[in-house]
Amino acid sequence: MALQWVQQSITAFGGDPDRVTIFGESSGGSSVAYHMLNTRSTPYFKRAILESPGITQTNTWERASGNTRYLVSSLAANESVGCTWPSTTNQTWVGFTTLQVKSAKPISHSSTMEDAKNTCVAMIHCYVLQELHNGTIQLFGYDQGRGVGFTNKTHLTTPLPVLSVHVRQPDVACEEVCLVQADANQLVRLGSEDAPHTDSILLDLLSPAVDGVELSAPLTELYQTSMPKGIDVIAGSNLDEGTEFMPATPKLECNASVTEFQQWATEVYGPEIKKMIVVDYNAWMIDPVPVCPYTNEKASFGYQAAVRSVGDSTITCRVQTWLSSVVKHGGNAFLYNFRITPRFSVNVASSHLASMGSFHGAEVPFVFGLPEEVNGLGEINASNAMGCYWVNFASSGDPNNGPCLKTFFDPLPNWDPFIPTEHNALVITNTSVRMESDFKSIVCDLFDQI
Fold first, then answer.
1. 275-280 long-range CB contacts below 8 Å, 24 or more apart?
2. Per-residue pLDDT, 278
3. Is 354 in contact with 232 (CB distance < 8 Å)?
């Protein structure tokens, strides 16, 4: 609807309906990707810019509906209007072995699962059971305006001795009425809780779901066959995308050995990746490397490689694959890699910048030239160049040609179109803007196996 309005109204603002560019960063970049593969959207724009998009961020229907049902369970436990439990004889439960309850206090305890379920069913506010290794069953419920949230045990240094978590299921017949009649503030509050199907480095709790209507398959499958013809695209990533997402992986210490890194990689990526990952990152450890987030001191190779691998596997390499499909379908593609650790950021405390590096989202103030965040001649020069490339691309489909041709880098360095076999990218630092060939080709070939 918004794209239709732009088409209908852009001329009134002096714009050209045949030169509409959509762009976004992170989940905004993912949204651009969804529009690119949606035949109802593509007639309304010509070009697209994807900054650090989550190409893997598509939920299965099972994950999405499971989390929605959990929300209904939380509402039923709070006696929200229209939300009910099934009859005592029809109660059902869903079990999880990778979760533990997060920061909620038990409302009761039991020694057997059968007794725990019977006790919980007798209490309208009760809807979660947690089984501990010692045989104790903890009962949790809606308490003081808060639901029960979860965390993934594999992400914790010292997980609780939890065997399993069981969630009481609501009356399926009431789900739609329950959600429609629920108080909006309560929905927002409960929606901020960590649902059973939690975030991972590849999936987001709130990502769009494959519903068979708007989305027939995950983006990672659709782009191979459904990429529109002739759409021009800028896409890229930041050097240290992984620093933002390391907490969503199994805990790894900053002094991790190569062996510990391989064990971590096996758990995150699988045993096949483990065989080559050390060799590949020995060849592709690009400086500067973020320091340890706990000590601000230099981290081991094992930790550094893990951080970089998270960003490469989730974003950097996915972007290259996406652009390869754009080129295959007749579009012009331009790949960039942003490598500036900012001197200041409103999103990251100054004391943490060295450990975050060129973090996820760090390039956004540079694209817009925000003076409160872009500081120093090197950063200003890089920002000025990025702004020119983006403006030129929106105007002509070519970042090298358009209304902005002169910057502090005079002339504007040429940005070559992406050639999949060459893995060529525009590298942006605070000292130069230059082309680089063979950008992470070995690493990305490795992650293409996932």
1. 276/446, 277/305, 277/309, 277/446, 278/305, 280/442, 280/443, 280/446
2. 85
3. no
At 260, the pLDDT band (50, 70, 90 cuts) reads: very high
Note the pLDDT tens digit of each residue in 110-127. 999 999 999 999 999 999
H or E element, residue 262: helix 258-269
DSSP type of residue 146: B
CATH topology of domain 2-58+206-447: Rossmann fold (3.40.50)
Euclidean distance between CA atoms 374 and 386, whole angstroms: 12
| Cis peptide bond prior to 411, omega within 30° of 0 | yes
Is residue 283 over pLDDT 80?
Answer: no
Distance (Å, whole) CA 305 – CA 262: 10
| Two structure tokens written together for 403 | 């209304």
| pLDDT for residue 258 | 93
Q: How many helices (H) and strands (E) does the chain have?
A: 16, 13
C-beta separation of 53 from 80 below 8 A = no
- Lowest-pLDDT range, 23-32, 97-106, 329-338, 362-371? 97-106
In the chain, residues under CATH classification 3.40.50.1820 are 2-58+206-447
Measure the CA–CA gap between 237 and 360, rounded to whole angstroms.
8
